[in-house]
Every structure is written in structure tokens, then in C-alpha cells.
Design brief:
heterodimer, A: 413 residues, mainly alpha, Formate dehydrogenase/DMSO reductase fold, 15 helices, globular, B: 118 residues, alpha+beta, five-stranded mixed beta sheet, three-stranded antiparallel beta sheet, elongated
């Protein structure tokens, strides 16, 4: 009977027809064209133009002064550029950690993803460095004083040093993988992994050791950073591998399919862990200091609620979780959609993490009249362009990498 | 019939034989591209590399394919009958037969799931 149609049946029908929708056909046409000669170079050219335009805007920001060009203030000194930097370096570390399961620890299932992942780990960390280059008032002085006047008690000194070491080892590893020296590549990968995990948990420590910001303070951050890095890495591996195969029109062989299935399962587990982390972070946060409660309220039901529920929770975790399960880890196309949503959601996670931690004024609990409400922050054109430039770097080098390294084939079996 | 033979974990520091019966052989990888004809392939960005990297370019199963010039060394076992396969399974306890990367000589793989003793 028509009246007996349940909402769950409709949802099932819609979900089962997912593969044959107009959107998926349209998307496969886009991918079909992407591997065409002209369009490939057009997209590569657009990416290069975006990088060039972003560099010009970044230099303009340097020229007119960051205070004028950026939306950051004395009260909110870390804006979208720091959020984007965290996003890129988190993705890089995640790519390194997940791919190391294969090429450092020898788990054969993960072996086929090694080369592309290491390459992308280098690309994303470079994008991160580029973005933060435009956030630091004098980046050259930072590089110089990092060497001649190190402050060993500063987390930020450790961050620069450890990420520098991480990038060096990853580049060495990639070169060794290219020349087929797998034994030494494994050692370089192990050193890259150790420095990457140290650098990344230290980055979590930068937030977690700030007493004045209760939203961040505590041992949660370093652990959260590593877990969420792995989740980002899984999403990036599925996303870029799928695109890489489409660009090269390659038929995905069974070992690569199995590798992506394993990565998909790991991603699902990590999403579940992250949801668990989030739940307890919120529950404990809501019984914390008044300023911590204010930050969480802003995130859950205030000006950042759309970011949180729409992007972080729905796009970043819940929908991908359902899609992964629904794909049964066999429908790689559906896993690609899930990873695309995750990447968008994760970007917003980083942005919110950085900004929401600062919107509650430091003197909030003292009842100072000027600081009784949440502080505003809106990214400016300059900031947005630099972030887009970082994405352009990833897109451009990814496309070039697919062309130059011909699909990043791995010979380790 | 030839099967590529592998373990669930591999040593990256040495090229260890996955089982007693395995012999290392040079196999010819097949490079499949998901376009229907050579004419379509010619329009693609990868065409030149694909053409120069292989021989015997042809259309097969609705895709273009070639034999790659660069061979790959793989551990292989030769199993002719079901009895031999069962004996192999008996010896190594848990095995799994799966599809491998496509080679001219084989596209099947036997994975030995148990731990390897040195």
C-alpha cells in the first residue's frame, strides 16, 4: 500500500540509486576530460595562475602590512592562515603515517600507496610552509634565528626544527624510492615518521600548553592531532589515488583496490575514534571554566554552529562514515565521495579549532565591560587568496607529479 | 598455472623468499588504460609515455593495453593441479587466492597468511 511507504525505504532507494545519479555521471565526464591532453594542461595552467596570483597578493600583503591586509587583531592573532597551515601539515603527517604502515613496517596491503603518498606528503608540507610564510612578519629572520639563537623551551622552535627535519627525510625517502633503493628508503621513512609524529604532536602541544586558552589547554590536543592527522591522511590517499587513476585512465589493479579498501577501513575506524574524542571534549568542555563554556557554546549553538554541525560533524565525519560503511569498502567511487567530503570538513575543523580558541576574550571571566562578548574575526581577501594559493600548489604539483612520475608505480611486492 | 606468491608482511631490508617453492622470475606487467580505442588513447595526456613504455599495443576487454618493456621481478610458484594447491595449503595452513597486478604470465596471487619463520 502506498501509505505504508516508510521514510527509511525512501532513504534506502535514494542511497541505492546513488551510483546512477546525474551528479555521478557528470563527475565521471569531468574526470574523463581531465585526462584529455588539452584540458589537463588547461587545469595545470589555471593552478599555476592561482599560485602566481596568490603569491602576488601575499607580497602585496607584506608591502601594505599584515595589520592592514589581514583580519587578525591583537586579540585574535591567529586566523585562517594558521588554520590552513595546520590543515596542510596535518594532511602531510597523516599521509606519512598511513603510508608508513606499508613501506616502513612492511604490511603488504598498504604497499601500493607508498610512492604517491610520500610525494603528496612533501607537496602538502610545502603548501603549509608557503601559507605560514605569509603569516610570519619576517620569515627569513625566523629561519636565521632558528639556527643561531635556538630557544629549546619554545614549542614553536621545536615545530620549525622538527618539520624541517621531517621534510628533509621525506624528500630523501622519495628520491630513494624513485631510484629503487627500498632498504634505505625504509630507514629514511622511519626517520621521517619519527620526526613527523614528534613535530605534529608538538604542534598539538603548542595549542595544548596555552593556559590562557581553556578551549585548547590540556593533554587532549597532541593526541587529537595525531589521530586526526591519520584520518586526514586516509582521506587524502583515497582522494588523490582515485583522481590519479582517472587522470591516467589506468585500470585499478587488485592490489591497489585492496590497499584503498584497507585505507577506507582505517578511515572509518578513525572517524569513529574522532567522534568519540569530540563527544568527550564537548562534554568536559561544557563543565569547564566560564570562558571555555562560552567557546563551546559559540561552536555548538552560536556563530560557529553551521561550521561545526554542517562541515565538521556532517561533512567531516557522519556522512563519510555512512558512505564508507555503505560502500562496503568495495565501491571506490563512493569512498572517493566520502573522502572529498572529509577533506572539506577537515579544513573547517582546523579553521574552527584555531579561531574558536581565541574568540573568547582573555578577560572574559573578570567581567571587563569592553571584553564581555565574543571577539569577531573574518578572513580578508588577502588571507583567502593565500589559502587558495596553498591549494593551488597542491593541485599543480599533484598534476605535475602524475605526469612526471607516471602514476607513482610502486615496485615493492 | 603460475601464481605470484606473497606474505602479509614483507621485509624491506632483504628480498626474502616467501616460501620454499617460490622462484624469482621476471614477469611482464600489462598496462591497461580505460579508453575504448587507440584513437581515443591518442588524445590523452599519457599516450606518448604509454606508447613508448610498452610493446604489442592492442584493444582487449574494451580497454587498450600493452606489455610493458620494463619487466618486474616477482616470487612465483607453479601449481598445476587442485591436488597440488591443496598440498600447498596443507603445508602453509592458511592461504588466500586473490587477483594480482596484471602480468602477461599471470594475474593470480597466493597470499600465505601465517607468519614466516626464518
Amino acid at each position: 500500500m502506498a501509505n505504508d511507504v516508510q521514510l527509511s525505504d525512501i532513504v534506502k532507494d535514494v542511497a541505492s540509486s546513488f551510483d546512477s545519479t546525474f551528479a555521478s555521471n557528470w563527475w565521471s565526464n569531468v574526470l574523463e576530460h581531465l585526462s584529455g591532453r588539452k584540458l589537463f594542461y588547461v587545469i595545470l595552467g589555471i593552478s599555476a595562475f592561482v599560485v602566481f596570483a596568490a603569491a602576488a597578493v601575499g607580497l602585496d600583503a607584506m608591502n601594505i602590512g599584515y595589520r592592514t591586509a589581514y583580519g587578525v587583531t591583537r586579540e585574535i592573532p591567529w586566523g585562517v592562515l594558521i588554520g590552513a597551515y595546520v590543515f596542510f601539515v596535518v594532511t602531510s603527517t597523516g599521509l606519512c603515517i598511513v603510508s608508513s604502515i606499508g613501506h616502513v613496517f612492511g604490511v603488504q596491503e598498504f604497499m601500493p600507496i607508498a610512492k604517491r603518498s610520500v610525494f603528496l606528503a612533501i607537496v602538502t608540507i610545502l603548501a603549509g610552509f608557503t601559507v605560514i610564510f605569509f603569516d610570519i612578519e619576517n620569515p627569513f629572520r625566523m629561519a636565521l634565528y632558528n639556527v643561531i639563537s635556538p630557544n629549546l623551551t619554545s614549542n614553536i622552535w621545536w615545530m620549525g626544527t622538527l618539520y624541517g627535519a621531517y621534510m628533509f627525510f621525506m624528500i630523501v625517502e622519495f628520491i630513494l624510492l624513485l631510484v629503487g633503493s627500498h632498504k634505505y628508503a625504509m630507514y629514511a621513512g622511519l626517520l621521517g615518521l619519527i620526526s613527523g609524529v614528534s613535530a605534529h604532536s608538538n604542534l598539538g602541544g603548542i595549542f595544548g600548553m596555552l593556559h590562557a586558552r581553556p578551549y585548547w589547554y590540556g593533554p587532549f590536543m597532541p593526541i587529537y592531532f595525531i589521530a586526526s592527522a591519520m584520518m586526514s591522511g586516509c582521506a587524502a590517499i583515497i582522494f588523490f589515488t582515485y583522481l590519479g587513476y582517472k587522470i591516467n585512465n589506468e585500470k585499478m589493479d587488485k592490489p591497489m583496490e585492496r590497499a584503498l579498501q584497507a585505507v577506507g577501513k582505517l578511515a572509518t575506524l578513525l572517524i569513529a575514534i574522532l567522534m568519540f574524542f569530540y563527544t568527550w571534549k564537548i562534554i568536559t568542555g561544557l563543565v569547564g571554566d566560564p570562558s571555555e563554556v562560552a567557546a563551546f557554546k559559540a561552536e555548538l549553538a552560536g556563530p560557529y554552529a553551521v561550521n561545526f554541525w554542517g562541515f565538521e560533524v556532517a561533512m567531516g565525519m557522519v556522512i563519510p562514515f555512512i558512505l564508507f560503511l555503505r560502500s562496503k569498502f568495495r565501491n571506490i567511487g563512493m569512498m572517493f565521495v566520502a573522502s572529498t567530503l572529509m577533506i572539506i570538513g577537515i579544513f573547517m575543523m582546523r579553521y574552527d579549532l584555531v579561531v574558536v580558541g581565541q574568540i573568547v576574550p582573555s578577560f572574559y571571566e573578570l567581567g571587563v565591560k569592553e571584553y564581555s562578548s565574543l571577539l569577531p574575526y573574518h578572513p580578508t581577501f588577502h588571507e583567502i587568496m593565500i589559502v587558495v594559493g596553498g591549494m593551488g600548489i597542491v593541485a599543480m604539483t599533484f598534476l605535475l607529479g602524475e605526469r612526471v612520475f607516471q602514476g607513482h608505480k610502486s615496485e615493492i611486492h | 598455472m603460475k601464481f605470484i606468491v606473497s606474505r602479509t608482511t614483507v621485509s624491506l631490508t632483504e628480498n626474502r623468499k616467501p616460501c620454499e617453492e617460490a622462484a624469482e622470475e621476471e614477469l611482464t606487467p600489462l598496462d591497461y588504460r580505460t579508453v575504448r580505442s587507440m584513437e581515443e588513447a591518442k588524445k590523452k595526456v599519457w599516450y606518448k609515455d604509454w606508447l613508448e613504455g610498452g610493446v604489442n599495443h592492442r584493444v582487449e576487454d574494451g580497454m587498450v593495453v600493452c606489455d610493458k618493456k620494463t619487466k618486474e621481478r616477482q616470487w612465483v610458484v607453479d601449481i598445476a593441479t587442485l591436488e597440488e594447491l591443496l598440498l600447498f595449503q596443507n603445508k602453509y595452513s592458511e592461504i588466500e587466492i586473490a587477483g594480482s597486478a596484471p602480468f602477461k604470465e599471470t594475474s593470480r596471487e597466493i597470499k600465505i597468511l601465517g607468519p614466516q619463520r626464518k
